[in-house]
Amino acid sequence: MIRALYSAASGMNAQQMSIDNIANNLANASTVGFKARRTQFQDLLYQSFLQPGAAAGAQTIVPSGLQLGLGARPAANSTIFTQGSFQQTGNPLDLVIQGKGFFQIRKTDGTIAYSRAGNFQMDRDGNLVTGNGDALEPQIALNAQAQTTTIAQDGTVSYTLPGQSTSQVAGQIQLANFTNFTNPGGLNSVGNGLFLPTDASGDPTIGNPGGQEGMGTLQQGYVETSNVSVVEEFVNMITSQRAYEASTKVVKAADEMYQQVNNVTP
């Protein structure tokens, strides 16, 4: 019964973390470029009362043994990098990556982070920045008097000035890719739609959109919405809730068994 209490408690803790993960996914269902996470569970140690394959006689062995598990724990909550839907905004500075790749974002401390969110803005110096003011890398600066801004599928940024028909090139957007022999699921989420590389993710490959490095192409005037499926999250929430309730019933049953034992008079 001691084992039942601890195993059920571990199951309750595991399902609690699953609910926490689902809550975060649902909270970001409208966050541009957000990628959902899925909780993965792992069983704990097993206590062997009879080892499988042990000798049962001179010429026979135990076919299956007797082992009792000690519960479960959350092992990981992996990021799902499936592409979200495209939403047209009409904003010429909004970009979506159609295919693989990440935008490179230079944080205020100088480190390079990676993001799928392409809802860029222009700061007072004409630089393309995120909503937090972090600059797009390589840095792209637009003329404050630019009349129209065009971003081609290959990442070429150009603009025209009033009274001129010839466009001027402002720069070239480059993307990072973690899907060529590397692991995008190993990226470290740091909030604000940003990811940092780790030893698990490997180093990115850099290239122009639509190039030979497996990069996707850019589409101007669109953003990539969250890939969270609200229906799927509700189903997962019901499953986790029912599993949590089942574990509480095991705790209650074990407690009642203890009560019966304590009431036994010698």
Strand content: 25-35%
The rounded Rg comes to 27 Å
Mean pLDDT: 90
Largest sheet: 5 strands, antiparallel
Number of domains as seen in the coordinates? 2
Task: List how many beta strands DSSP finds.
Answer: 20
In percent, how helical is the residue content? 10-25%
Span between termini: 20 Å
Which structural class matches the secondary elements? alpha+beta
- Unreliable residue stretches: none
Provide a count of the helices. Answer: 2
Shape: elongated
Q: Helix and strand succession?
A: HEEEEEEEEEEEEEEEEEEEEH
Explained architecture:
- The protein has helices at 2-27, 230-262; strands spanning 37-43, 46-50, 66-69, 72-79, 86-88, 95-98, 102-106, 112-115, 121-122, 128-129, 135-137, 148-151, 156-160, 168-172, 175-177, 188-191, 194-196, 205-207, 217-220, 222-224.
- With 266 residues, the chain is of the alpha+beta class.
- Strands 7, 8, 11, 15 and 18 form a five-stranded antiparallel beta sheet that branches. A three-stranded antiparallel beta sheet has the order 12-13-14, with no helix packed on it.
- Helix 1 (2-27) runs antiparallel to helix 2.
- The protein has two domains: 2-40 and 72-81 and 228-262; 86-224, no CATH class.
- It is 22% helix and 30% strand.
- Strand 16 and strand 17 form a beta hairpin.
- The model has no long low-confidence stretch (mean pLDDT 90).
- The longest helix is centred in the last third of the chain and has 33 residues, at 230-262.
